[in-house]
Design goal:
With about 400 residues, the chain is of the alpha/beta class. Helix content is about 45%, strand content about 10%. It folds into 2 domains: about 220 residues, TIM Barrel (Alpha-Beta Barrel), CATH 3.20.20.70; about 130 residues, no CATH class. It is built from 19 helices and 8 strands. Strands 1-2-3-4-5-6-7-8 form an 8-stranded parallel barrel, surrounded by 6 helices. Strand 6, helix 9 and strand 7 form a beta-alpha-beta unit. The protein is globular, with a radius of gyration of 20 Å. The two termini are about 35 Å apart.
Length: about 400
């Protein structure tokens, strides 16, 4: 089969096969990022139906995963439709990271080390982007995983202050055993409201310097962006996080338009209902569950153009406690759009919230949105005590690793 210079068969450099069938997984280019409390099983299955050909799990805390069967059971559930799959862990202890990886080694296609989380909890826990300058430790971690696992080890990184230093670091990771490097084209300081433009040129230079496949992460809001990123960076795959959270059909040739985020709102409303149907197959309190806060987070993002301006709909979202409540809300939003389409401005998207100027009158009061967020965080902490150990971050509305990657 003939391949273009962009869609090259990089799988040969990685040697991937699915453990269940032994067949090659191909060379996936449309990738769903690891996102805390958001890239769970139901959402991954949804994205695969709409064009994604590789998904990452949420970031799992290696200490909790290694020692707690309850943590493993509530977070990870193998599914035949959920392949190829990369499982991501955070941590700084090679032994705990290896122990965690061993639990899922036969149920996934690679293990990823999170070296990109820029949040304060990652600083406190000494993981994510705050390990990027601890090269001796990183060499030990990656080497330990690579030597003791039967599947590839990959790393997701952010830029250091200089591209040259980033290239040197990535070469060190590859020498230690990393088979794929994913580069988020911003530094750890460039997050949330301080988010800057994604540096595709830096990613291009890193790709040119490395002998292994490189995925680009950042500044993807449409299928057109995916193709442009592949051309401009020369990367082997493109990862989306925030945009795909708001538009799970982003990677689909059928529903993603040139502008991506402007796909038909009716299409998106239907996709939301489809997601709820998938969530019913892994309901709250089940193995690999879609928790109520997780569900609410997805609903908030996908229905942002409605809940940001309609206080009644936002109130229903914050009070929703069951899958049935969520389904009723999604149907109510669809009916409201049909009844009064002029009251919803599709330009005011969740994805653009840090980059578009706006007033509280236009978006609904920030205080109301913050209150909704605080409610979700409080519920999550009641459900999963010990947030400092679990290390999942404090917000499902856009401040976790992988959920601020414009």
């Amino acid at each position: 089969m003939r391949v273009t210079s962009v869609l090259k068969p990089w799988r040969r450099a990685v040697g991937w096969v699915t453990t269940s069938t032994g067949e090659s997984i191909g060379s996936p280019t449309r990738i769903v990022a690891p996102m805390v409390d958001q890239s769970e099983l139901a959402f991954r299955r949804l994205c695969r139906r709409y064009g994604s050909n590789l998904c990452y799990t949420p970031m799992y805390n290696s200490k909790c995963f290694a020692v707690s069967s309850a943590y493993r059971k509530s977070n990870f559930d193998p599914h035949p439709e959920d392949r190829p799959l990369i499982v991501q862990f955070c941590g700084n202890d090679p032994a705990l990271l290896l122990a965690s990886a061993k639990f899922v080694e036969k149920e996934c296609d690679a293990i990823d080390l999170n070296l990109g989380c820029p949040q304060g909890i990652a600083r406190k826990g000494r993981y994510g982007a705050f390990l990027l300058e601890e090269w001796a430790l990183l060499r030990d971690i990656v080497g330990t995983l690579a030597k003791n696992l039967s599947i590839p080890v990959t790393c997701k990184v952010r830029l250091l202050d200089s591209v040259e230093d980033t290239i040197t670091m990535c070469k060190m990771l590859v020498a230690a055993g990393a088979r794929i490097i994913t580069v988020h084209g911003r530094t750890k300081e460039q997050k949330s409201k301080a988010t800057a433009g994604c540096n595709w040129d830096a990613i291009r230079r890193i790709k040119e310097a490395l002998p292994v496949p490189v995925f680009s992460n950042g500044a993807i809001s449409s299928l057109e962006d995916v193709e442009r990123c592949l051309r401009e960076t020369g990367c082997d795959g493109v990862m989306s996080s925030e945009a795909v959270l708001e538009r799970p059909g982003l990677f689909s040739d059928n529903v993603s338009t040139v502008t991506g985020l402007k796909m038909s709102q009716a299409q998106l409303d239907d996709i939301v209902l489809e997601y709820i149907d998938l969530a019913k197959q892994s309901p709250p309190h089940s193995r690999g569950r879609t928790s109520v806060p997780c569900l609410r987070g997805h609903m908030f993002k996908c229905l942002f153009t409605a809940v940001a301006v309609r206080t009644d709909l936002r109130a229903r979202l914050t009070k929703a406690r069951t899958l049935e409540d969520m389904e009723e809300l999604a149907l109510a939003v669809r009916e409201a759009r049909l009844a009064d389409p002029e009251s919803f401005d599709e330009e005011k998207t969740w994805y653009r919230r840090h980059t578009m100027p706006h007033t509280s009158d236009e978006w609904g009061t920030p205080q109301a949105l913050w209150a909704a967020q605080a409610k979700v965080v409080a519920e999550k902490r009641l459900r999963d005590p010990g947030p400092e150990e679990v290390g999942l971050g404090d917000s499902i509305f856009g401040d976790e690793e992988g959920a601020a990657d414009y």
